[in-house]
UniProtKB/TrEMBL annotation:
Keyword check for Hydrolase: yes
Record organism: Stigmatella aurantiaca (strain DW4/3-1)
Example GO BP: carbohydrate metabolic process
Protein name listed in UniProt: Beta-glucosidase A
GO MF annotation list: beta-glucosidase activity
Gene of this entry: bglA
Pfam families assigned to the protein according to its UniProt record, in alphabetical order: Glyco_hydro_1 (PF00232)
Length: 438
């Protein structure tokens, strides 16, 4: 890598990412119901007060500033804002406005997600995603939120990882609302694309010009058996459906998914054409796909074929795949934001190396013409990791879940050195100058 390829330009954004339910605490929504129904891997686990970010937001903005971040990704919790259908809670809207203004005053650009996995409890009963009423419901919610975003120049994300919501919640039945139904999944997919368009209309009506996109979970798919043509076909179709179909619809207005035997659809949604300003990438790992001769026809596995050791959750640490994914986004001809990338690392020792090798891929992709504008690390803090509960630790800051005390992990000094120095250095280089490692 040449010297230039080690440098991040001044306008490149380093930031951190969170989501409301995982950090705020005290939220009653579909996930709280799901937990009470014993649907997590550890059935007695609850999110509860999470890590109390709702009350400790000032402290947490300070922690982000301390690691050199200039952007902070949060989500608005629909269930706080519209606890009953059609009744909007002015105090909740005001509280979010106050928090976003404080964030901005601290020099952190707000990155605001409108929907990050969770729903008010009425949503699945009254307007689930596979019904057209879901689009109107989301539109009404976004209309209520739009005024609180005025003057913030926030980067806006309508939906976080819609394919995860759809595959987990509508096809596999693992996440709320727990359906396992191909046609419902495809109807819900189409409605989520339409909901994004509706959100865009509402936001533009109040804010004028917007910088809006979605965050897409993108996996680097590879055939489990390199010699098996059907594993290759599974990768081709699976990667298109999972990684690209949603963004493709937002760019071209054409929605296409082909997963034979599981779920397929084709729809023209002309209003969706050109409906995002950037491509949001959440990258974590590589997955091996295998064709199965019977339902569900596909199996996917994280493997450690390179002998690097899986992460605590059991994901492969595969930075090369991040580079591949970033290069694939070139097809859209739009700026790219890495809206999440991170590692669950209980001991905290692997994280600086993870960051180094993933940021290296960002620089390489930029050198190859991918317009990556920013990198948001998942996550600022250890937090509640959905079905996995309290086990995984993704935080730059370690959180003691009893006392809620936040303590820097070794990655804080590394992140700060790169974000402030604008140069990619090896973690060892930092360890050699102890004064830098506060
Ligand atoms: C992503 C989610 C985020 C977090 C990370 C680890 O899929 O968007 O909320 O759970 O995974």
């Amino acid at each position: 890598m040449s010297a230039d390829e080690k440098t991040f330009p001044r306008d490149f954004t380093f930031g951190v990412a969170t989501s409301a339910y995982q950090v705020e605490g005290g939220i009653e929504n579909d996930w709280a119901e799901w937990e009470r129904a014993g649907r997590l891997k550890e059935p007695h686990t609850r999110c509860g007060r999470a890590v109390d970010h709702w009350n400790r937001y000032e402290e947490d903005y300070g922690l982000a500033v301390d690691v050199g971040a200039s952007a902070f990704r949060v989500s608005l919790e629909w269930a706080r804002i519209e606890p009953e259908r059609g009744r909007f809670d002015g105090a909740a809207l005001e509280a979010y406005r106050e928090r976003l203004l404080r964030m901005k005053a601290r020099g952190l650009r707000p990155v605001v997600t409108l929907h990050h996995f969770t729903h008010p409890t009425w949503f699945h009963r009254e307007t689930p995603w596979h019904t057209p009423a879901s689009v109107d419901a989301f539109r009404a919610y976004v209309r209520a939120c739009a005024p609180l975003l005025k003057g913030l120049e926030a980067l806006l994300i309508s939906l976080n990882e819609p394919m995860v919501v759809l595959l987990g919640g509508y096809l596999q039945g693992l996440l709320p609302p727990g359906f396992a139904d191909g046609p419902k999944t495809m109807a819900a997919l189409e409605n989520m694309v339409r909901a994004h368009v509706a959100a865009r209309e509402e936001l533009q009506a109040v804010l004028g010009r917007v910088e809006l996109g979605i965050s897409q979970n993108m996996l680097c798919f590879t055939p489990d058996r390199w010699w098996h043509p059907l594993d290759h076909a599974a990768v081709r179709l699976g990667a298109h459906a999972y990684n690209h179909a949603f963004h493709e619809a937002l760019v071209t207005g054409k929605l296409r998914v082909t997963m034979p035997g599981l779920a397929s659809t084709r729809a023209e949604i002309p209003q969706a054409r050109g409906s995002c300003e950037f491509i949001g990438v959440n990258y974590y790992s590589r997955a091996h796909l295998r064709f199965l001769p019977r339902y569900p026809f596909l199996a996917f596995q994280f493997r450690d074929r390179l002998g690097r050791g899986l992460t605590d959750i059991g994901w492969e640490d595969y930075p090369e795949g991040f580079g591949e994914i970033l290069r694939e986004t070139k097809r859209y001809g739009l700026p790219v934001w890495v809206t999440e990338n991170g590692i669950d690392d209980r001991g905290g020792q692997r994280r600086p190396h993870f960051l180094h090798r993933h940021l290296e891929q960002v620089l390489a992709a930029r050198a190859q013409g991918v317009d990556v504008r920013g990198y948001l690390y998942w996550s600022l803090l250890d937090n509640f990791e959905w079905l996995e509960g309290w086990g995984p630790r993704f935080g730059l800051y370690h959180v003691d879940f009893d006392t809620l005390e936040r303590r820097p992990t070794p990655a804080c000094a590394y992140f700060r050195a790169v974000a402030q120095g604008r140069r990619l250095i090896a973690p060892e280089a930092l360890e050699a100058q102890p004064s830098a490692a506060r």
